[in-house]
Amino acid sequence: MWVLMYVFSYSVSPAATSDKAEWRLLPTVVFQEFTSEERCKAAKSALEGSLQDAGARLRSGLEDLKSIGKADPAQIIIAYNVACLPK
């Protein structure tokens, strides 16, 4: 038995928004069991690709806002870790 575990969090500082408060998502931890290492690694690869793609789209949108002086992508922190662990 294998367990896919991923941790995801983000933070947006006030400098990146018109809001004066910092937005912070406390780490979310998710576990999913798999019957084989191969299935776990396939899910891990798909999840990492999805998270990387979402982060890239977010940064691209923020770059567009930065060009008109409305946001700064440097003020955004997105963190995640994905691992397959034997149970």
Q: Give the spatial strand order of the biggest sheet.
A: 2-1-3
**How many individual helices?**
1
Q: Estimate what percentage of residues fall within beta strands.
A: 35-45%
Report on the biggest sheet.
Answer: 3 strands, antiparallel
Q: H/E element string?
A: EEHE
Can you give the mean pLDDT? 83
**Helix vs. strand class:** alpha+beta
Shape: elongated
Q: For the CA atoms, what is the radius of gyration?
A: 16 Å
- What gap, in angstroms, lies between the N and C termini? 5 Å
The residue fraction in helices comes out at 25-40%
Unreliable stretches: none
Count of DSSP strands: 3
Summarize the structure.
The chain has 87 residues and is α+β, with helices and mostly antiparallel strands. The mean pLDDT is 83. A three-stranded antiparallel sheet has the order 2-1-3, covered by helices on one side.
Write up what this structure looks like:
The protein is α+β, with helices and mostly antiparallel strands. Helices cover 36% and strands 39% of the residues. The chain contains one helix and three strands, in the order ββαβ. It has one helix spanning 37-67; strands at residues 2-12, 23-34, 76-86. The protein has a three-stranded antiparallel β-sheet, with helices on one face. The chain is elongated, with a radius of gyration of 16 Å. The model has no long low-confidence stretch (mean pLDDT 83).
Which key phrases capture this entry?
87 residues; 3 strands; alpha+beta; 1 helix
Q: Can you lay out the helices and strands and say which pair or pack?
A:
Blueprint: E1 2-12, E2 23-34, H1 37-67, E3 76-86
